[in-house]
Predict the structure.
Amino acid sequence: MTADGIIWDDGMSVGDPGLDRDHRRIIDALNHIVALAAAARRKDAIDEAVHLSVLIVAHVERERLLLRRAGYPDLEGLERKQHDSLERIHELSKLLITDPEHALFIAQTMARAFAGYLTGAEADFSGYLQAMQTAEG
């Protein structure tokens, strides 16, 4: 994580190309929000935050389906962690509208929250997915 946003590295991979692609798209959207906020383009940052919400909702559904099919043993616990982390990002998105003076700080905090999500909730199941793929491979 830098002041400009999140830098993807292979350590963030969960072992599934589709989910990793989703994560990269979400990171790109967050980084774009940070750049827009830094350029004082608050309206554009808000529009990008709406796009981010759509990306996140679609990603969560794909992830749940994949993990359900894979028989992930703690899907309920993961869903709670996802909800808490992603709700934080959603709440921060709303602050872009209500607190324009702090848009850059808010955008950077959103990016940090997602980076924490990737290294927390997502890391919980990445080893499981990788082991399942190796077993199937």
About this structure: The chain has a mean pLDDT of 87. Residues 16-136 form a domain with the Four Helix Bundle (Hemerythrin (Met), subunit A) fold (CATH 1.20.120.50).
